[in-house]
Amino acid sequence: MTLEEGRPGAFYRVEGTALPLELTRRLQALGMTRGCPVQVLRKKRRGAMIIKIRGSRFALGRAVSTRILVEEG
């Protein structure tokens, strides 16, 4: 499943991304690596979402969140 499909309050584990290499490396620098736990904090109507990774909060647009693969847990 993709991160965009996640429910607010739920926890997921990052499985990988289908993003350009430059953006993937930027997310890795922010702490989003394979196996990393991610919590969806809030979802906005137009697809933007706020997530929590390693104690930090980030906002992601729909174009990015639809290309981050996650599994529940």
Compact summary:
With 73 residues, the protein is an alpha+beta fold. The protein has one domain (3-72): Ferrous iron transport protein A (FeoA) (SH3 type barrels). It has two helices and five strands; from the N terminus they run βαβββαβ.
Overview of the molecule:
18% of the residues lie in helices and 40% in strands. The protein is of the alpha+beta class. It has a single domain (3-72), classed as Roll (SH3 type barrels). The chain has a five-stranded antiparallel sheet with strand order 4-3-2-1-5. The two termini are 12 Å apart.
Largest sheet: 5 strands, antiparallel
Helix content: 10-25%
- Taken from the alpha-carbon principal axes, the silhouette is globular
Low-confidence stretches: none
Q: Name the CATH class.
A: Mainly Beta
Secondary structure tally, helices: 2
Placed side by side, the strands forming the largest sheet appear as 4-3-2-1-5
CATH superfamily: Ferrous iron transport protein A (FeoA)
The gyration radius over C-alpha positions equals 11 Å
Question: In terms of structural class, how would the helical and strand content be classed?
Answer: alpha+beta
- Helix and strand pattern: EHEEEHE
Mean pLDDT: 95
Termini separation comes to: 12 Å
Q: Give the total of domains.
A: 1
Provide the β-strand percentage band.
35-45%
Label the CATH architecture: Roll
